Amino acid sequence: MTFGAMEAAQAQGLVAGRDLLFSGINTSAEAMQAVVDGRLAALSGGHFLCGAWALVLLHDHHRGLDFMSEGLELQRPMFMLFDAPQARRFLQRFGDGQALALDFRPYSKALNPGLKRYPFQLEGLLKAGSRSE
């Protein structure tokens, strides 16, 4: 929707990031590049990881670890606000659109008994090692 609004503005002779400010919720390469280019003033994303975090919890539960130690409600920030440097990192790590083999083992308490709390944050994936293809 944001890119449609940007196209409509451009058709009126307006420039995104200069005449109008746009924001969105997305982690596509196109959206990240728009942040880097200054066409998107604000971009949030990361909700796609909700399923991955749920699978880590199921993995641990299957191995006998109850996530009750996290409390009755598991609340973790799913979204991250991207600035240009973070968008560049995201593009570097995930930007080619290829299916990536992400290693979720560091997030499992069953595989990492020293973890006190699940480290579910998108920022951690951006800082993780190089991509594996």
From TrEMBL:
Domain of life per record: Bacteria
SUPFAM superfamilies: Periplasmic binding protein-like I
InterPro entries registered for this protein in UniProt: Peripla_BP_I (IPR028082)
Name used for this protein in its record: Uncharacterized protein
